[in-house]
């Protein structure tokens, strides 16, 4: 079946996707789950970084963003992020967002790793993502300009004359081609390709794979951020122990109860995430246990200040007011993705990408804490303006990736093997030998029989290949065989695939 809609299709219903849809004159939001379900947004704990404090400003926020980015931040993108941030918060407030406040009614601003000022806006302590999801979902449901297509999986993009003109979707076992004036990918990152991750199962690089198959430029694929403090032994995904805990005074200790980050970095527990993650990982590799200790700070106020983390710990028999919490790094955020400009445009006409599936360069080689929700809000709004100005002619002939109409869209059982290999060889620390071993093993897993398996293998291979080609350590990418930065490699690396397309007739368009 072929169906045509009269407005852009937004694929994904997290913070970035819903921001785009709400800013368009009309939009169709298509999501694998129910609206707002299944993605990373509701799980985000830390907050939104924004320069609204009396001692702060966009220039200071930009400086902190660039400082942790390993020399690869795109200045134009950073400027958009920090300059547009306050307006993004004002839009949320106008929609009814309830952020934590001081007794005098001013916004309560927290601090997290890498920030030199208190600038983290948060809701209910550590439930900021859930609050943003609540507000944006309510606004989308109330809007007569947004149509939702729920419980529908997008499996590929449709092309015509070298531009994207629609999608192939599956619902209840039935496939359809949906044509639209524009397609916006807001499908999230790749975290669930790893055995240890804070990301839910649907966050496994599908949007990146779809964009790659139509020849879109990809960039910065080697840069995967590993959050230092996920609750060890806590399930799949691993519960996140928010950065704000360390910002609020919690410390990282070893099995003897001793802090060790003070000897690693001047900012100790508030060092950039890659520094803290590697320090913890090396302790774990040596056989030690590592804990996040909040017994003194936040101490008795733990349940009040961090109710989400408190509940997660208590469910596992740990009372963080008296028990240090065992931690491990976990795959958390992807700095790479589909290459876009500051309006969300990809290299393929008709296709935009926003949020974690995209890469504007705002994060460089390492993302500053709490800049991710802000990115979705800022660049979602900017992309909507760009999409609204796009007025293409109707397509004449369609081209669809060869397997899009036949492969079965279910996760193969042996995706677990891929995830273990990714963690072992493409994780916190990498080596040329390990990356080559991964690339040799991944092709033997036989994942191409399903859509999800095909996507996972493609994206994992692209990430490992990018990590192998970058023979230096920079930001979140650390090579044990090349442990220092190489000034000659202080640039972003693009890659694009040649699309393998199958033409089909347009005679059955409804």
What does this structure look like?
- Helices cover 30% and strands 18% of the residues.
- The chain has 510 residues and is of the alpha/beta class.
- The protein has helices at residues 15-23, 58-67, 75-94, 128-142, 206-213, 243-247, 273-285, 302-305, 307-315, 372-388, 415-425, 432-442, 451-469, and strands spanning 2-4, 9-11, 27-30, 48-49, 109-110, 120-121, 146-149, 153-160, 163-171, 174-179, 183-185, 218-219, 224-231, 251-254, 290-293, 325-334, 337-339, 351-353, 358-359, 398-401, 494-495, 501-504.
- It starts with a strand and ends in a 6-residue tail after the last strand.
Outline of the structure:
30% of the residues lie in helices and 18% in strands. The model is unreliable at 501-510 (pLDDT under 50). The strands form 6 sheets. It has a 5-stranded parallel β-sheet with strand order 7-3-2-11-18, covered by helices on one side.
Question: Can you tag this structure with a few keywords?
Answer:
510 residues; alpha/beta; Flavocytochrome C3, Chain A, domain 1; five-stranded parallel sheet; four-stranded mixed sheet; 13 helices; 22 strands; disordered C terminus
CATH class of the domain at 229-331: Alpha Beta
Look at the helices and sheets and give the structural class: alpha/beta
- State the major sheet: 5 strands, parallel
N- to C-terminal separation? Answer: 8 Å
Question: What is the share of helical residues?
Answer: 25-40%
């Amino acid at each position: 079946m072929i169906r045509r809609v009269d407005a852009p299709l937004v694929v994904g219903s997290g913070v970035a996707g819903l921001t785009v849809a709400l800013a368009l004159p009309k939009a169709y939001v298509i999501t694998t789950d129910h609206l707002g379900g299944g993605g990373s947004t509701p799980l985000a704990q830390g907050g939104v970084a924004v320069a609204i404090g009396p001692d702060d400003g966009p220039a200071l926020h930009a400086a902190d963003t660039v400082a942790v980015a390993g020399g690869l931040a795109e200045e134009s993108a950073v400027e958009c992020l920090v300059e547009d941030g306050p307006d993004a918060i004002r839009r949320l407030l106008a929609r009814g967002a309830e952020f934590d406040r001081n007794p005098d009614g001013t916004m309560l601003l927290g601090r997290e790793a890498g920030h030199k000022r208190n600038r983290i806006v948060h809701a209910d302590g550590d439930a900021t993502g859930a609050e943003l999801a609540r507000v944006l979902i309510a606004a989308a449901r109330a809007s007569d300009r947004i149509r939702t297509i729920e419980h529908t999986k997008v499996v590929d993009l449709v092309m015509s004359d070298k531009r994207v003109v629609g999608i192939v979707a599956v619902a209840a076992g039935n496939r359809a081609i949906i044509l639209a004036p524009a397609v916006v990918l807001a499908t999230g990152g790749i975290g669930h390709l790893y055995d240890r991750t804070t990301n839910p199962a649907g966050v496994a690089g599908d949007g990146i794979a779809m964009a790659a198959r139509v020849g879109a430029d990809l960039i910065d694929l080697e840069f995967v951020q590993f959050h230092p403090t996920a609750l060890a032994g806590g399930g799949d995904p691993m519960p996140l122990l928010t950065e704000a805990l360390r910002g609020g005074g919690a410390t990282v200790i070893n099995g003897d109860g001793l802090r060790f980050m003070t000897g690693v970095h001047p900012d100790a527990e508030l060092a950039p995430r890659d520094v803290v993650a590697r320090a913890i990982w090396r302790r774990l590799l040596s056989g030690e246990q590592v804990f996040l200790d909040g017994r003194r700070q936040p101490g008795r106020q733990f349940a009040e200040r961090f109710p989400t983390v408190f509940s997660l710990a208590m469910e596992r028999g740990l009372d963080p007011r008296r028990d240090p919490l065992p931690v491990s790094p976990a795959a958390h955020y992807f700095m790479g993705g589909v290459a876009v400009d500051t309006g969300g445009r990809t290299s393929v006409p008709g296709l935009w990408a926003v949020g974690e599936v995209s890469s504007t360069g705002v994060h460089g080689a390492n993302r500053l804490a709490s800049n991710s929700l802000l990115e979705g809000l800022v660049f979602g709004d900017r992309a909507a303006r760009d999409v609204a100005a796009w007025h293409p002619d109707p397509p004449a002939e369609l081209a669809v990736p060869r397997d899009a109409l036949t492969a079965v869209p279910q996760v193969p059982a042996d995706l677990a093997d891929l995830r273990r290999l990714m963690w072992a060889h493409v994780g916190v620390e990498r080596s040329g030998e390990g990356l080559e071993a991964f690339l040799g093993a991944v092709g033997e897993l036989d994942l191409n029989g399903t859509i999800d398996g095909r996507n996972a293998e493609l994206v994992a291979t692209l990430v490992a290949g990018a990590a192998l080609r970058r023979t230096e350590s920079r930001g979140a990418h650390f090579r044990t065989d090349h442990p220092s930065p190489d000034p000659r490699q202080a640039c972003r690396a693009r890659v694009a695939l040649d699309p393998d397309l199958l033409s089909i007739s347009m005679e059955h368009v409804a």
